[in-house]
Amino acid sequence: MAIALVSLILIALVVLYFYLTKNYNYWQKRKVPCADGALPGVGHFWNLITMKTTFSECCRKIYNDNRDYSMVGVYNFRSPALMVLEPELVKTVMQTNFANFHENGFKIDPDLDPLLANNPFFTSGENWTTGRKHLTYAFSSMRLRILLESVKQVCEQFENYLDKKLSKIGKIELELKDLFARFTAQVVSGAGFGVDGMSFNEEKEKETFYTMGKLFLEPSGVNNIIFLFVFFLPSLGKIFRTPFLPKKTDRFFRTVIADVMEQRRTEKTPRNDFLQLMAEL
């Protein structure tokens, strides 16, 4: 009985191993260089799963280890993926022959993340083409010059924020990552929505653009798991109904947009920000 049980376990393990690695000769068959270190079932992203590193750092390591090649094959869990390394080849994919490469590898469930579902970074096909046209117009040189005025105002607020801190004791020690996260959040609120994001107001830290951005962008165990479910294991994400954008953040931005648009309809005062541009398209 014990021998039969052990045999069944061994057979199950062998079958599982072959199932998890059956695609792991995909790039070798096509004579494409493949990165070393693929593990059964997780491919080249074990350190991402164990939260030892970020997705960007995983990609950077693969790039540094294979920079002598124009491209290198990797395994995104069980699925083969191609990392293009050579600048001219990147240009060919992203610009010259983009019509053949527009399909997006990452998709957002519109039922779980309606605010992000139409973002060009997560769309493909006709939806991507439409979004790209809007963004191309929105980021024309003329529009960027207009948005620059909002950025200049934030720079002045940034100076005032630092001056206020320095005026108390004459010297300060700041965490630069936190400091420029506040600056970036304030730029987004001003140039994007035409409102004061209150990111430089440390007395109002509950619901500001800075705290909302930090809520879903700052690395944490929960955020890493959500990232894995949404981008690498979407089938599990659907089962557990895992949204990429936290409900609190989703509600915050919906409220901001609704309030701003209602105010503009009432006052009939157009603004030179990104939200106004999107409303006019």
Principal-axis shape equals: globular
What is the averaged pLDDT score?
83
The number of helices is 14
Q: What level of helicity do the residues show?
A: 55-70%
In what range is the share of β-strand residues? under 5%
Unreliable runs: none
Structural class: mainly alpha
For the terminal residues, how far apart are their CA atoms?
Answer: 72 Å
How do you describe this structure in short?
This protein has 281 residues and is mainly α.
Description:
With 281 residues, the chain is mostly helical. 60% of the residues lie in helices and 4% in strands. It has 2 domains: 76 residues, no CATH class; 148 residues, no CATH class. It has 14 helices and 2 strands. Strands 1-2 form a two-stranded antiparallel sheet. Helix 9 crosses helix 10. It is globular and about 75 Å long. The model has no long low-confidence stretch (mean pLDDT 83).
Write the layout of secondary structure elements.
Elements: H1 2-21, H2 26-29, H3 46-49, H4 55-65, E1 71-76, E2 79-84, H5 87-96, H6 114-117, H7 125-138, H8 141-169, H9 176-193, H10 209-217, H11 221-232, H12 234-239, H13 247-267, H14 274-280
Helix pairs in contact: 8-9, 9-10
Output the keywords.
mainly alpha, metal-binding, globular, 4% strand, 60% helix, microsome, 2 strands, 281 residues, 14 helices, Cytochrome p450 9e2, oxidoreductase, two-stranded antiparallel ribbon, 2 domains, single chain
